[in-house]
């Protein structure tokens, strides 16, 4: 299939439909509006359902209903709306339902701004919902990658019976790039025998639930969930490691910021400074191994984010105290400039003897 | 051999109810389950349980069930019904769940005329959490968060859900019933049946508000509770039909 020029948000919608998404529930919030707008146009054409909910809270609970009823379902929002969805996300994780949640994130805290930001790293990787739950968080750095990851996200969700979170900063949602809708590797998926589609008086009722009043039963459920999360940590880590050979400094960044970091690496190269990049594609599970494999030539790590520093916590955990970890970030809708990253690298190397 | 003169409806499972002695949830569960069985839709039905005393309703109804977050049952039911339009979908909610934390969800499920049925159990108090004031608590009624009696000056008047929803076109069937005596229980069942028939005909959203008792948190006997409902709730929450599909035509 040939490439088409598409806006990120619309491409995400198209990828979901191609992946067999049959229901979309959302609420307007900038900068993700083109996703529900696209879905309101296109879902019915593919036999799917679109509902504009009264709130993000209602939208995620509609997702809970449709996911429990056994269909592929997605919702999208942006940062303040994602905060509202946390109640539903923990119920969905607790009840072990598959769904895809897209966050086209914007500046915060509070109402913040409508410009791109990576201030949602914590909410994407730690979650804002109650209890012991985890979900995979995918962070595309291009519209092509957004399309590929959204397509795969539905399979991952069904495979683990767990929500999959896609964290696309506002830049990914709003810019246009050529994309190709290609077939992604698909997984062997079990039939959804647990779904609520009516007993037909021929089986016991299926119950979609996250309540367990007996502490021993709930602990058992938590242990079962944890085993599943451990499988995700073992099997689902994705990372791009770039230009790492002989690197003196290792940049680490995800999403749009990783592209800016690559520009900075080119500028540094021209000045004779060798810099590498670790780009987590899954923010959770975090690519710890890539940090263990940093070459001995490296003197420091520089984490670059469109936030005041959130991923840096995971970088420090993954680094296990081996190298000094520095930070450069812009926030509030401001983007890091390649030259600013170059300057920061020189400052770091100047201080390292 | 004796022939049985009465059998429990197949719309209920054999699980023993956890409800307090004298609580009318058991009666209302049975009415809903009998209606599902009589309409022959138990095997096609997906119910949504609330948070509150009837949180465990998913163990009692003999059909597929979802347990929703507090107040979100109408949103959950919307998600189910939109992807399973051929199934019968209902929510079973209390007054804290539906008339406080879930007010937006119940208004908008009616607004969209979702083809679902809601059984709204109003006992004028938060039961499961131990007797706190609800939006439906009567003026002067004591609750653990209105220990001197509900004050209109501080908290306004009780919310009349049926009257509010009857202003929304998508709510095509709205009726308030009570279960404080046998004749009213019979009327309640008729209303519940109509509310499911409205859904089966695809006419829109249907809600039946059932006035109910809470002897435990009202602090009176089950018998006195039935009398208290009759004497105090009926004057403020008048019984009757507020909307039928015919009216909308």
From TrEMBL, chain A:
Domain Pyruvate flavodoxin/ferredoxin oxidoreductase pyrimidine binding: 15-234
Any GO molecular function: oxidoreductase activity
Keyword Oxidoreductase applies: yes
Oxidoreductase is among the record's keywords: yes
Record-annotated Pyruvate:ferredoxin oxidoreductase core domain positions: 247-340
Keywords: Oxidoreductase
PANTHER family: SUBUNIT OF PYRUVATE:FLAVODOXIN OXIDOREDUCTASE, SUBUNIT OF PYRUVATE:FLAVODOXIN OXIDOREDUCTASE-RELATED
Cross-referenced NCBIfam families: PRK07119.1
Protein name per its UniProtKB record: 2-oxoglutarate ferredoxin oxidoreductase subunit alpha
From TrEMBL, chain B:
Protein keywords: Oxidoreductase
InterPro entries: 2-oxoacid:Fd_oxidoreductase, THDP-binding, TPP_enzyme_TPP-bd
Boundaries of every Thiamine pyrophosphate enzyme TPP-binding domain copy: 59-210
Any single GO BP term: cellular respiration
Signal peptide range: none
GO molecular function annotation: oxidoreductase activity, acting on the aldehyde or oxo group of donors, iron-sulfur protein as acceptor; thiamine pyrophosphate binding
Designated name of the protein: 2-oxoglutarate ferredoxin oxidoreductase subunit beta
Organism this protein belongs to: Anoxynatronum buryatiense
